[in-house]
Amino acid sequence: MKVAQLISVIILSIQTIACQNNKPINPDSDMLFDRIPRSEYNTNMTYYTDKALPGSSLEEMLRNTTNEMIAFIDAIPEDKIDYAYGSFKWTVGEVLQHIISYEEIMLEVALLNAGVISEKEHTVYYNQNTTIAGAKGKSKSDLLAEFKRVRQKTENAFNSLTDEQQKRMGTLDGNKTSVRVIAFCISGHQTHHFNVIRELYLD
Prior knowledge:
The protein is mainly α. It has seven helices and two strands. Strands 1-2 form a two-stranded antiparallel ribbon.
């Protein structure tokens, strides 16, 4: 590739990234996420936020996410909980446990960023293996009950935050984000793994 062509490609790439990061919000949208400024998150966050359930507010979005969770787990056959589609792959129960455990981690990070808890109270950290710990031996009803407990805690926490706390900036997994965007990541993370279960475990 000639130098001039290479420079043109680099400039185009920079312009594309800039456009993505400065894409205008839609203030007239009924959906809250469409009204959130791009300055509140970087493009890495959209991997999950794009999969979040719709909602005109955090409360509605989380309620829709909870309803989806209950309906999805209720529909899983009991004999599929210990099923894995290949060697060294997680079982359905382990995938569900991972979603639950990682939600607890994301919620704690959100509360830390919001200033609700201190660094000393920040006790749970992400580790791929530890997020599935404890799944073995749990029934579908056990996992659903745990999911409901954690989700209720999540909903109560986000619903209690002030507008200023929801918009406060911090990081999640090294990515710049506001507190309220983490709520959308929780929803999208759930959707992502439910899609994986549908495609690889329940065919």
